[in-house]
Amino acid sequence: MSGKRIKLSGAEFRKRDEEKNKKDKLLISQMPKIQSLFKKKPDSDVLIEKSLKTDDETLKSLKLNSDEQVEKSLKTDDETLKSLKLNSDEQVEKLLKTDDDTLKSDIKLICKTTNVPICPSQDPALWEINSDIIDYFIRNPVVSNPKIINFDSTIRKCGEFNRKLPRDIFKRKLLNGEIKDRQWLLYSTSKNALFCFYCLLFSNKKTQFSSTDSGFTDWKKCLEKVEQHEKNLMHNESIRIWFSRRKLTTGIDVELKIELEKRELYWRSIIHRLIETVIFLSGRGLAFRGNNETLGSKNNGNYLGCLELIAKFDPLMSKHLDEYGNKGRGNVSYLSHTICDELITLMNKSVFCNIVNEVTAAKYFSLIVDSTPDITKLDELTIAIRYVNLDGTAVERFLCFIPSVGHKSKEMEVAILTKLTELNININYCRGQSYDNARNMSGMYNGLQARIKEKSKNAIFSPCSAHSLNLVGCHAADVTKEGYNFFSLAQNIYVFFSASTWRWEQLLISLKNIPNSMFLKNLCPTRWSSRFSVCKSLKIGFKGVLNSLKSIASNLDQKAAIRHEAESMYKKIDTLEFSFMIALWTPILERFNATSKNLQRVNIDLSCVVKLYESLEMYVQDIRNRFDNILVEAKQISGHEIFSFEEKRNKRKKCFHDDLDVQDTIFHGQEKFKNETFLPICDTIISCLNERKMAYIEINKIFGFFLNIEEIDNEILREKSKQLVAIYSEDLEPDLENEIIQFKTIVKHFSAEEKSSMRSLLEALTTSKLNDSFPNVEIALKLFVSIPCSNASGERSFSVLKRVKNYHRSSLSDEKMSSLALMNIENCVLQSMDWNDFVKEFAAQKARKKL
């Protein structure tokens, strides 16, 4: 039967493979070799052969040339082509069309056949003088360097005495007093002898100065013999030969070098423009690529679009785009996305190096860690560090995002330590850490802060002060039913109006006649203190909101569900309770918002955190005593004189026969609202603030005596300093107590502003150049200032993450996303860096010089 496949045996498979291999070998043997393209060099082509004997640097540059550069470099004039003596024009054309790999193999073949010395010895006694060595040193002349000679090891027995090579032998003093270097005089360490560079290469007569077998060794008559040699006719003839040979062989090299320098300058100028474009786009978090990479297309992306814009006003870039734009693959233009990605990667590494160098110079640092999901629902762990610069200012730098770490403290610890080790940042110098109040982060036994303390015992944990303040507000809002209903209703009002453009327009019409009115604001789920804008907009536009709801509820053109919802909201907010909550929360949240913004600043220390918490606590305490004033304001807002529950009969608890005679206290009217809503909110805020600030007070107690140093007795200062040295025994010396006693007299001359906080005290000490006299005081202040007050830098990195990795760029790789985020967040570092060395390094790495 036909159609059934019969499987061959293993032996048959092997037999067929052997036959196929034989056919392939036969076919390869019949193919012409590349050597057949070149005519064998006759003796008359010695000059050509010598011109190909380049040094190793020229060979390296030739190896890295691209197709287009090779084509241009080989387009020499007719006379050069004739001297090459190729078989025909077709062979020349084939040579011009060779790719990079072929060129590399040809260069390696030339190096082997011509026996080019790759790295001749610096010891002249070890030179094997031949035409290759001579040609090499004509292009690379050796100059004597007496600085590297160990003259103590040049001792020789001259007669009855031991003599050393005189240092002055490498200098020639003229009659008019001028001193010239004898650059031709070389010293051999292997022979412990002197040689003449010119005579060694070109002298026909072997003398002590030109023979590699012996060399000149008579130190006693050294000066006399050297003077005789440099006046010798044979020496002068050797110099003449060397000069004439160098003139002949370096003519083309000089022109080539000039052309190389021109091309190098050209490419450096182009790369500088590319770098500035990358800095511009990354600093604004913009996308680089578009739908295509075609110049002139409106969909080619921001990167090529910016280059086209620059080209309109820059002749160099305009010429570059005209000459190299849209050339396709295999043509060097530096306009492709590959080069752009390489620039981003290398610039990211440069910024990393800059930050790591700053951290190394500062020595002490603190960790700031947080996590959030990105647009692809992938958890991103952000790492930032805080340290004190050499000028005494505290800075916080973003390091990177690490994806898919997990939420367990052990997993986060491994990820953090791995990254710090990769960046050569020593965890032993970590002196602080700040995270949010989540259990896996702040747990004192198994949390991340406890694990970091195992690695660095003095890494003090400071809870994020801004996050703690948010928790205070959240807890106070949820402690009463009225408080919870107020914010829930405020959000429902915003959702109701914003869900329809017509309803939003009706609201704007109602608010138009109210002075200083604001749009309704949405409740922010993370920044709780920003709810101040929600309360303020409701307080100013209360009447307008009521009128809008009333008109919508009575509008028969609207659906019944919409009219019912509007009427329901109208009844809920048209009460004295709702107006009272507006009057109460608006001033409290205004202070919360201002305090939260202050806590998120970088240039703040824990002493300021304690002051801010205490001031906020005192402010709420004052609000607690102003119930009657707030009630009057609420009545003015709502127009109601009594609370809604006063219109209802009070509920009474049913008593049973076994109940005690003690009756529950029943409040009525204003007293009921005051005791069940107003006082619990205020007391919760006060108690939570007092509880949260204790974490910062404990840290502040260790260093706090610096702020009151003028008022504290010397004995107490000594005791405090001893306690501080005991805690930081690896960082502070026992001399700290003596420095503090002397520093106390210096502080008197500081201004009140300079003594207001530990940060300003450190800056005053550094700017006054007194840190050398008080090194331990400076270290103590740095340790305190380097402790972070909040992890706001981590939160700000999340905002950048949302811009960099958005819906349209969700496929960004983790490495590139982290690089773009770093360049966006630390754009000030990018702006301040000198990119000249970077351009040289990039050009050296690519090595594409077109001739």
From TrEMBL:
Residues 1-26 are annotated as: Disordered. Coiled coil: none annotated. Signal peptide: none annotated. It comes from the Eukaryota. SMART domains: ZnF_TTF (SM00597). Residues 169-254 form the TTF-type domain. Residues 12-26 have a biased composition (Basic and acidic residues). InterPro entries: DUF4371 (IPR025398), HATC_C_dom (IPR008906), RNaseH-like_sf (IPR012337), Znf_TTF (IPR006580). One of its GO terms (molecular function) is protein dimerization activity. SUPFAM superfamilies: Ribonuclease H-like. This is TTF-type domain-containing protein. It comes from Macrosiphum euphorbiae. The lineage of its organism: Eukaryota, Metazoa, Ecdysozoa, Arthropoda, Hexapoda.
